[in-house]
Amino acid sequence: MAVYTEDVQSEVRGQLGFITLNRPKALNALSLAMVRELRDVLLRWQQDEKVLAVAIRGSNKEGVFGAFCAGGDIRFLHAAGMAGNPELEDFFTEEYALNHLIHHLGKPYIAFMDGIVMGGGMGISQGASLRIVTERTKMAMPETAIGLFPDVGGGYFLSRCPGRVGEYLGLTGQMIGAADALAYQLADGYLESAQQQALWDGLAAGSFANGQAVEAFVRAGLATAPERAANPDADIAQYFGLADVPAIISALEAGDSDFARATAETLRKRSPLMLFVVLEQIRRARSLSLADDLRMERDLVRHCFYLRPHRKSETLEGIRALAVDKDHHPQWNPARIEDVDLQEVAQMFASPWPAQAHPLLALD
Predict the structure, then answer these.
(1) Which of 8, 235, 280, 283 has the highest count of CB atoms within 10 angstroms of its CB?
(2) What is the pLDDT of residues 47-105, one digit of tens each?
């Protein structure tokens, strides 16, 4: 049995498989080795009748829980993209296959979404049969800030949020807490962070007839969710159901509410090209299966890193500005929402592969 990395710790206790992401200094950001380890472990447990369910958590610098997963390892993605390292392609193909496996595991998968749950962290939790949030949960799909799009199945799960919430979260990258995550159907239950260890240990010690009994045990241990503070749902519906990005930004900039002003300011900082791509991605994904959405996202990510003729990669520039040079001044191209070429947006959705050679052909 291959072990790819010590950053993923897995064990069977009682009738459950337990996974702890253990790369706390990087907020458990996923490396290619971690993706491979997770997939191998899950495939093994999927076939093991003695493993009735799976539970997953992250660790922080003080111990377990407190940080779930901040996403993919964007420093690696930048270095690999700049060097033309083929492991960049492997990372996305294998990560998306892992996301698909989690959605189709066939047995309960319980995600303890404590602390930061962003990007790739959503990819390994949104397919869970029970998604547990705490008072410390900080959830987001912030990819437009780095010139990317909400991948890892983001088109699929964001497009299935109520109303136009998916467009709002995908375009802005807005961070939400437990109450909004539950309201937006991105979480299933709430637990005080201090109670997580007891539930985790109870799963290890319990005697269960089947996977349904495991789920029932977890649900019985959940707490009442906190009340939502003032929520922006009416504003989200008003603006993010509009026809296109120019209409959304025009309406926001003409608005006089705090929501309109703050949201317009946020969108003006994001990659203009990727705002158009994300709006199209989420609206297309509403009618796609998860497998087809992941194939579309695999096409998009190839374009993002490699296939923009005559222009630099928005994604490499975005990561440079946020995580490498940290100047927080990405030079987007085009620089303005008003200058985005719709033909270029359409080209992003053209698959670089013939259907029979697609790297995610096997997903169903």
Answers:
(1) 8
(2) 999 999 999 999 999 999 999 999 999 999 999 999 989 999 999 999 999 999 999 99
| Per-residue pLDDT tens digits for 219-251 | 999 999 999 988 899 999 999 999 999 999 999
Which CATH superfamily does the domain covering 1-137+177-230 fall into? 2-enoyl-CoA Hydratase; Chain A, domain 1 (3.90.226.10)
> Hey, what CATH class is 232-364 in?
alpha beta
Please name which of 115, 91, 111, 114 lies closest in space to residue 34, comparing C-alpha atoms. Answer: 91
pLDDT surpasses 60 at 310: no
CA separation, residue 91 to residues 31, 32, 34, 42, 55 (Å):
8, 5, 10, 17, 23
User: For residues 77 and 239, is the Cβ–Cβ distance under 8 A?
Assistant: no
Q: What is d(CA 183, CA 189) in angstroms, rounded to the nearest whole number?
A: 11
User: Looking at the predicted structure, is the pLDDT value of residue 255 above 60?
Assistant: yes
Active site residue 258: no
Identified catalytic residue from 66, 81, 115, 120: 120
The mean pLDDT of 151-174, rounded to a whole number, is 98
147: annotated active-site residue: no
Catalytic residue of the set 17, 58, 72, 166:
72
Q: What residues contact 166, with CB distance under 8 A and at least 6 apart? A: 158, 159, 160, 282
Establish whether domains 1-137+177-230 and 232-364 are of one fold. Answer: yes
Mark whether 341 is an active-site residue. no
Q: Which of 114, 143, 215, 314 is catalytic?
A: 143
> Domain map of the chain by residue range?
1-137+177-230, 232-364
Q: 95, 151, 180, 188: which is the annotated catalytic residue?
A: 151
- One-letter amino acid identity for 86? P
pTM of the predicted protein model = 0.96
Max CA distance (Å), the chain: 61
Active site residue 325: no
